[in-house]
Write a structure and sequence with these properties.
Shape: elongated
Largest sheet: 9 strands, antiparallel
Number of strands: 27
Mean pLDDT: 90
Pfam family, one: DUF4340
Protein name: DUF4340 domain-containing protein
Helix content: 10-25%
Organism: hydrothermal vent metagenome
Strand order of the largest sheet: 4-3-2-1-6-7-8-9-5
CATH class of the largest domain: Mainly Beta
Domain DUF4340: 212-397
CATH architecture of the largest domain: Sandwich
Length: 450
């Protein structure tokens, strides 16, 4: 009983010590935070700023914070690059007012000349909180070293040193602060894409099963990565130059009759969400003129971005030869002119020759065979509308592969024909209505494993 009382007392003592240590730690943390906030040049944080006016040699750039991000209000109305604005805000509001940062508490006129603050040309006004209380910082010159610049608050005497980065950001032009995004849609939300050229229209669509397909000018499976590369190219590239704030003169930029149009649908929209038009190429600026349905201006993008737009449907076509899950296969047949190999899966999921009671086949061998098959890629699409299969050695085929999946009465097939002039083999497959060119390795796979 005495042992229990002693232990209980020690528990109470340790708990008290722990509680005291925690309270002491919290008190210290709060005090450090208070001291840190007291040394801030501005009594607010970037999130509190609702409007900014950047005055450079009496040229005003006005920005406002909206629910969807920052916007430029003057000298024109446009979306701002919110990341660039927040970066600028961070540099400025991180400035300090303690003795280490005060260059001169009450400078004489000559000292103001040295600081570049006698006749300053750059100032920034922040409007903070619901009452939009203004705070103005006047920016001087950059210091010769130490990565700092000089500044003072409007109506106050002291000259402070601030980060040179803040001064550099304030010197940027309107292009820097402007949103330069081309495609403002999230590629993940897009479920239909159309490329219109005078000679061809290519349509790709994302059905409910989540696998991109081509619908026009041919039907086939699209390469998911290539579709997203194209969407990503326009979502991630930046506008190179803003050429005109209106669309009054489309003809001068070749946009009255665009050479290419891209149409994007966001999931759920029956009409195109956004239409992008490509006009003339500017050789001297190495870019193409662009207009879009979701804005009123004309701008320039890098020529590489436009050159990446596919000219033919096959550029977006998947080169994957097989689409099956090995674990779901129940039967494999390899048919040649003089021989047929049949593999069947029994109830124990073992592979056997000819039927479920036949000779057992090494599971690892079948696994390796299927992995080799799946690794094969389509080398080229020869034609989408063959006049005759016999000219390719596909009527009848030299070799035929048939794969049956569980609960499916229709096999996945691959037919192998003659050798192509380029050293490949002609083929046709279940998921493609075209004549294909495959590496000759596929022929060796089908003839050597079993």
């Amino acid at each position: 009983m005495r042992y229990f009382k002693t232990t209980f007392m020690w528990v109470i003592v340790l708990a008290a010590v722990a509680g005291y240590s925690y309270m002491d730690f919290e008190t210290t943390r709060i005090e450090e935070k208070r001291k840190e906030e007291a040394t801030r040049l501005f009594p607010f944080f970037p999130k509190d700023v609702l409007a900014i006016t950047l005055n450079k040699e009496d040229n005003l750039l006005e920005l406002e914070r909206w629910e969807d991000g920052w916007r430029i209000i003057a000298p024109l109305k446009a979306r701002a690059d919110s990341e660039a604005v927040e970066k600028f805000l961070g540099y400025i509001t991180d400035s300090r007012n303690d003795s280490d940062y005060v260059m001169d508490p009450d400078p004489l006129p000559q000292r103001l000349v040295e600081f570049g603050l006698a006749n300053p040309t750059v100032s920034v006004t922040f409007k903070v909180g619901k009452d939009l209380k203004p705070y103005t910082i006047i920016l001087g010159d950059r210091a010769p070293s130490k990565g700092v610049a000089y500044a003072r608050l409007k109506g106050e005497k002291p000259v402070y040193r601030i980060l040179a980065y803040a001064r550099a950001e304030a010197d940027k032009d309107i292009y820097y602060f402007r949103d330069k995004t081309v495609l403002r849609l999230n590629p993940v939300m897009i479920d239909q894409l159309v490329i219109e050229r005078p000679e061809v229209t290519i349509r790709a669509k994302l059905p409910a099963d989540g696998k991109w397909v081509l619908e026009k000018p041919i039907e086939g499976i699209a390469d998911h990565n290539k579709v997203f590369e194209l969407l990503g190219a326009f979502a991630n590239t930046e506008i190179k130059e803003f050429v005109s704030e209106t669309k009054d003169d489309l003809k001068s930029y070749g946009l009255d009759k665009p050479a290419i149009q891209l149409l994007f649908w966001v999931s759920g929209d029956s009409a195109p969400t956004v239409r992008l038009m490509v006009g003339k190429r500017s050789p001297e600026k190495r870019g193409y003129y662009i207009s879009m349905s979701d804005r009123d201006n004309i701008f320039l993008v890098e020529e590489d971005t436009v050159n990446a737009i596919p000219r033919e449907a096959k550029e977006l076509r998947s080169k994957r030869l097989f689409f099956f899950e090995s674990d779901l296969l129940k039967r494999i047949e390899i048919r040649k002119k003089d021989k047929a190999t049949v593999l069947v899966r029994d109830v124990e999921k073992e592979w056997r020759r000819n039927n479920v009671n036949g000779e057992k086949v090494d599971f690892s061998l079948v696994k390796e065979f299927l992995e080799d098959l799946v690794s094969q890629q389509i080398a080229d699409f020869i034609t989408d509308s063959p006049e005759s299969l016999s000219e390719y050695g596909l009527d009848p085929p030299e070799i035929q592969l048939l794969l049956w999946e569980k609960d499916s009465a229709t096999p996945i097939y691959l037919n192998i024909g003659n050798r192509t002039p380029a050293g490949y083999v002609y083929a046709s497959a279940a998921n493609e209505g075209s004549i294909l060119a495959l590496d000759e390795k596929v022929k060796r796979i089908l003839t050597t494993y079993f």
